[in-house]
Design brief:
Blueprint (H helix, E strand, L loop, with lengths): L2 H13 L6 H10 L6 H16 L10 H17 L6 H7 L13 H7 L5 E5 L4 H8 L2 E3 L8 E4 L9 H4 L3 E3 L2 H10 L6 E4 L6 H9 L5 E6 L2 H14 L4 E5 L12 E7 L20 H18 L3 E11 L8 H8 L5 E3 L15 E4 L1 H4 L4 E8 L14
Parallel strand pairs: 5-6, 5-8, 6-7, 8-9
Antiparallel strand pairs: 1-3, 1-4, 2-3, 9-12, 10-12, 11-12
Amino acid sequence: MTTFILNTIQQIIQAANREQPADLILKRELSAPHGVSPKQAREISKAVFAYYRWLGWLNSQQPLSAQIQKAAELANAFTKNPQEFSDADLSTRAVPAWLHDQMEVTGSFSRALQTEPPLWLRARPGHGKELAEKLGDCRLHGNSVQADTLQYFGTKDLFRTPEFHAGEFELQDLSSQAVGWLCGPKSGQTWWDACAGEGGKTLHLSALMQNKGLIWASDRAAWRLQRLKRRTARAGVFNYRSALWDGGTRLPTKTQFDGILIDAPCSGVGTWHRNPHARWTTSPDDLRELSALQLKLLRNAAPALKPGGKLVYAVCTLTRSETTEVAAGFERMPPELMALTLTNPFEPALAQQSQIWLWPQNAGGNGMFVAAWSRTQKNRAGKLPIPLK
């Protein structure tokens, strides 16, 4: 490790905090014209993420440079022989103590958190095999539903490839793609991606709809919708409209939808293998605030669902506060909605369930919780549910 690389790593770690997460600082610093080669950028990113993955094993009294070196040694040892690390040790040190009150922190889950995550791509429909041949270093994921999902093993900067600029693929986590499959939108339908962000799932919904029908994409941040606009242009997605929505009772449109996706803001526990810094900046107070917001989003979006329509709730977290408790709280409110049974896309032979849990140690993507409901009819008073203020 050169002095330049070590200094850069230290600067990023020292600058990282709750308001400026390490992954955002990395993105900013490594994309700026600082003379960092792609190889150096990979080395820096790997070392920063290793530091936060193995933070529970480090001695904070030592110099930061020594801690960085120790984290790299632990990461290398885990890669070579993960069985040297006990389940009990991993479950205790790899996560903050409060998480044990929110979920069962198993050894297999903890091991998944300490593993560098795979990189997943989603090709244009019907072009998975062709894309794999063009990019090289790819593995097609498998069955017919997931035929355009690829795992990438190479070292190219994919954002600079001609295939990316031609809109031939998107970088999208495997479990995030599973949310689109569970939504199952049909060509010609009208859907609402209510918490669209920068549009990853909007683009996937459009692909599943063969770019036909209509998708409303909303978010509370205008800058995210601007990025969505650029992404849809590159991907050739034209069957969408975007609008600001803060999650309140005033909806962005009076349209009634065949399907609504609430990919809600959450603690992101299911992404902690990918974003290890967040393990140490997230708190129980965040969960209380987020679960209240998640319930509010569901409650306020539900009136826009057509009879027979499908409401899908997805969060990339695994805490009880943001998953089963939100679903149970929502089900106590709108009596005209009933829970739908879903098929786990990675384990289709299992019995259908009303709630799907995707675990990083099983599927290889982010941890994800998905639940869905269908509108059966209006309630006894003939009215839609009263939105939350």
